[in-house]
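User: We ran a pulldown and think these components assemble together. Before we commit to crystallization trials, I'd like a predicted model of the whole complex to look at. Sequences follow.
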Amino acid sequence: MATIKDVAKKAGVSIATVSAVINGTRFVAEDTRTRVLAAVDALNYQPNRMARALKQKRSQMIAHILPSVMNPFFPASLKGVEDAAFAADYSVLVCNTETEPARIERYAELLLETQVDGVVITSPGLTAIHALAHRLDDHGIPVVVLSGPRSLDSFDRVLVDDVKSGYLAADHVLDYGHRRVAFVHVRHSTTSMHRMEGVVQALERCMPGKKPALVLEVDNFTEQEGYRIGMNLSKKDGLPTAVVAANDMLAVGISEALHDLGISVPEDVSLVGIDNTMAASLRPRLSSVAIPAYEMGKEAVARLKGRMNGVKAGEPLTITLNPQLVPGHSVTHPTVRTALPSGRGAPQ
Amino acid sequence: MATIKDVAKKAGVSIATVSAVINGTRFVAEDTRTRVLAAVDALNYQPNRMARALKQKRSQMIAHILPSVMNPFFPASLKGVEDAAFAADYSVLVCNTETEPARIERYAELLLETQVDGVVITSPGLTAIHALAHRLDDHGIPVVVLSGPRSLDSFDRVLVDDVKSGYLAADHVLDYGHRRVAFVHVRHSTTSMHRMEGVVQALERCMPGKKPALVLEVDNFTEQEGYRIGMNLSKKDGLPTAVVAANDMLAVGISEALHDLGISVPEDVSLVGIDNTMAASLRPRLSSVAIPAYEMGKEAVARLKGRMNGVKAGEPLTITLNPQLVPGHSVTHPTVRTALPSGRGAPQ
DNA sequence: TTGTATGCGTTATCAT
DNA sequence: ATGATAACGCATACAA
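Assistant: Here's a predicted model for the assembly, 696 residues in total across the polymer chains.
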């Protein structure tokens, strides 16, 4: 690889001049400039980012920490992050934590060693994540939280209104006349908690003082957990007429379980998801609440850029984007047979 | 950030000694070693990777070039790459090209500037990709091709037997008695071409000399294209009894189109995908041929490590992994009405 | 308008 | 067994 020295020699100038023409950091006569550029071209010179980073103490790299690249929500936000970073000449380091504390801690070290300029964190609020965020912050590395736990409130955040997401989902089935609505909640997830809150609000508004939503708990946002709870859906107080799942992957699992139980969607049970990541692949198409993951990724990097370019201090900024209901075909009116014990005609 | 100098001062030794104890690069007395480690601990010292990279000419970073993070196949391989890289203390730079030549070219520059130690390329065989691969190679940067075009045959490759994938998919429906089999092919994709070849082989073996598969062409591996072709499935020679899609995303789109047309899977038409990425979310569960994307990612990094540690020259190595049929519920026996006028009982 | 020289934080060579 | 010091490739303060 040609170095700046080679270019300088070939162009018959000093390395300072070469640096100047490359970075436009000071005036340089037109003819020398062209000589330099010619040399650059001839030698196929590429500035060494490591050297530059060392000198400038900026690596032009950001990291994106995410719990799992297999949940389709994250590739979407990752793409947003990558697009924005690419446009701003930053590289993106992916850090897949699988929510394992050991990996998170290891990544904390790594990112510090790598001198990344900023970090976008998407993750449930594990203590390891809190430690990581604060550790980065202590070293002056900007952190933006994307759709994370509300407890990370001393950082810039790009959030979506989770309460509203839950509200929209529940409201949708209520609109269709459902009154026995179940919510499938993920334990220890603040996101899920907020979504549940929205569900509860919608029910309360629709039927003041009435029995609240039926809540079923699972351990994480996976299809497997959805399947598991789906198989047990009728165990507790009998089958609900509508189910709101804390996310789409759960909904997929639930749908599968219902299918295996011979219960059909939406004829017997209506189903709504949140995230709108898998809607198209479910038959019938899943009604879901879309979260603008891609935009959130872009926005997160925009914030990061702000902080990296000097806006050191100042109040933490929170941007909240809006979820949006995307109706599919998994919700319909409750049928007589599931509503009442009497006369079960097949209302075809 | 504390530097090696600070540590040296605090421990009352030279920086050479500190470096030695950190890297285990030479003997150092037990007591000084402990003093150094104490200082490291006290100052929370983290070696600067940029400086190290500059000196050693190795950045401990690899890049993963992929066409789109939204197709679930790629997150799977990305995870394999990331896992293996993480275990070997390498960071992963994601380079999402969207198969846009401009982005690919820009990434070529970037990777050279960043001095990545190796690159895993997953991509269709665009000329920009060829250029990138050879350019990296010219600079001595190891390249491993993961499931890419066969034309990149001067590089190490981790492939899957695409012909066999197609064969397995077709064989599956043939086993069920289907004789009118359509293949949905993606134009300009060598992967799709090989899969088609497998389909053709299976048909030829099953019905020598008979009319080959019905081939329908689309422009890329997306659900949208699948939907489009699905709506036109019966246009050409009438409805086939079974459809093999070049990948799962296409299958999802096809399934959706069929649903919209009132044609049910598998009662009216059997459907098989390839990749096994979305099987679980389709109802009925999609029968598909699994590609070991995760293992391929791991294997690719293993090869990369080999090349990065000295195995400079030598024949390009190709590893071929095996696809595997994963039956779902989207395939069944052809029904009388779609099959032949004469007597085929509905077996079971 | 351009060149010289220093230092960024490491590793590695050469001494001692 | 350990210390000085040069060099990695670049940006930049200071000279000229």
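Chain B touches chain A through 49 residues (CB under 8 Å). That may be worth checking against your pulldown data before setting up trials.

User: Thanks, that helps.
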